[in-house]
Design a protein that fits this description.
With about 400 residues, the protein is of the alpha/beta class. About 35% of the residues lie in helices and about 15% in strands. The chain contains 15 helices and 14 strands. The strands form three sheets. It has a six-stranded parallel sheet. Strands 11-8-7-12-13-14 form a six-stranded parallel sheet, sandwiched between helices. A two-stranded antiparallel sheet has the order 9-10. Helix 1 packs across helix 15 and helix 12 crosses helix 14. The protein is globular, with a radius of gyration of 23 Å.
Length: about 400
């Protein structure tokens, strides 16, 4: 097979998992260490032809819930018999829980069982955090951690230092976080007038695309139709973070309720609320250009416990501060700037919110930052310094290259 280590990368989807866990890391491996590695990204290998893998040293894939289950398992067996190393990457807990939007579909497809079986069959597993690795080791002891990391050559992640006359507290999230956002419910209504006039709430990723299921009177599915904007989870998000538009004047509320894709209200930087429409993965990072402090509520669930600290990473490289729920991934390397009793810790890199007391603590944190605006710089600088080396994709790729050499013996 020559002196180079040949790696075939098999993503699982066309979304974030593919990008963060498969393509970006291995394109960087090929870029930095092309004299040592040959990297092939294959979205659709022929699972009925296991000999395709004979010229590779490493086969790495994400989750492995492929449609052709029998063919996939035969390929794993072929790789084992021919001493080709198999690596499975998993970044989300396989048991989604009944409140996850994809729970019914995942259960019907038996994805949790498939993922656990895959864990037992592969040579190695890669994942995002030590918290998740502990769970994975119940099924496979050979677990290695590669955190989600930022490519500093990608311009969308360049630090942003822009400011407006308001302190911008923003949400950058996907469509599956409705239960998480409930942690924030009631916060805006409790803020005092002097705080409200100095802040802007920004919701990034607004999207009204998608289909709704159509059922007959007996609850049988008979088809789908385009979703109406008022039915979108994003509209529910928006109502929650604006207290049902209570702090938007009549003209602005009317504009918002027209749901004009990618439209921007005149002088929106002066409004209490700002809607930012969804962006693709190549420009996603520019959402952070419209915020100063990222808000990351996280419900205390088993699924969330095993998520990654990605939002801290993203906001840190963009030179933004972060307020996060003190749970799961956001306990990794974090230290709140607020000590017990209210004293400021200048070495803190975030604000930690107790999920149990979320109904009180989110508002208190926002109020304290607004009344002590120097804390914005402290949070931004300390978060950047926290992530800039450990989560730099160049540094993570160096570790990956060394590990691939070690496990292949080449």
């Amino acid at each position: 097979m020559g002196n180079k280590i040949r790696v075939v990368v098999i993503p699982s989807d066309n979304g974030g998992c593919r990008t963060w866990r498969m393509t970006w890391p291995h394109l960087k491996l090929d870029s930095l260490y092309g004299d040592e590695f040959d990297v092939v990204i294959n979205d659709n290998p022929d699972w009925n032809n296991p000999e395709y893998f004979k010229d590779f040293d490493i086969v790495t894939f994400h989750k492995g819930t492929f449609f052709n289950r029998e063919g996939f398992l035969n390929c794993l067996k072929y790789c084992k018999e021919n001493h080709i190393i198999t690596i499975m990457d998993v970044d989300d807990y396989w048991d989604l829980g009944p409140n996850h939007p994809m729970f019914i579909q995942s259960t019907a497809l038996k994805n949790p069982q498939k993922i656990v079986e895959n864990l037992r069959l592969v040579d190695y597993v890669t994942t995002t955090t030590e918290i998740f690795a502990e769970q994975i080791r119940k099924y496979n002891k050979n677990v290695f951690i590669f955190p989600n990391a930022i490519d500093t050559e990608d311009k969308q992640w360049a630090p942003d230092y822009s400011r407006t006359d308001k302190i911008r507290f923003g949400f950058v999230m996907g469509s599956t976080h409705e239960r998480d956002l409930e942690q924030f419910r009631g916060t805006i209504e409790k803020l005092s007038a002097d705080v409200l006039e100095k802040i802007q709430i920004v919701l990034c990723g607004f999207d009204i695309r998608g289909n709704a299921t159509v059922m007959d009177k007996n609850k049988n599915i008979i088809g789908t139709r385009p979703i109406r904007p008022e039915e979108s989870v994003w509209t529910r998000y928006e109502k929650l973070v604006t207290a049902d538009y209570r702090f938007c004047d009549g003209n602005y509320k009317n504009f918002l309720l027209k749901f004009l894709p990618n439209s921007t209200y005149p002088n929106v930087e002066h409004e209490f609320y700002r809607r930012e429409w969804t962006k693709n993965l190549n420009t996603f990072g520019t959402h952070y250009n419209n915020i100063d402090i990222l808000l990351v509520p996280l419900a205390k669930t088993e699924f969330n416990k095993y998520k990654s600290e990605l939002k801290i990473v993203e906001s840190g490289f963009k030179h933004k501060g972060v307020i996060v729920s003190d749970f799961g991934p956001y306990t990794i390397g974090t230290k709140s700037i607020f000590k017990k009793g209210g004293e400021i810790d200048p070495t803190g890199n975030c604000v930690l919110i107790d999920p149990v007391n979320a109904h009180k603590e989110w508002g208190k944190a926002i109020t304290k930052i607004v009344r002590n605006p120097e804390l914005v710089d402290l949070l931004q600088n300390n978060n950047y310094n926290h992530v800039k080396d450990e989560y730099n994709l160049d540094n993570v790729t160096k570790i990956r290259a060394e590990w691939y050499h070690k496990i292949t013996g080449k």
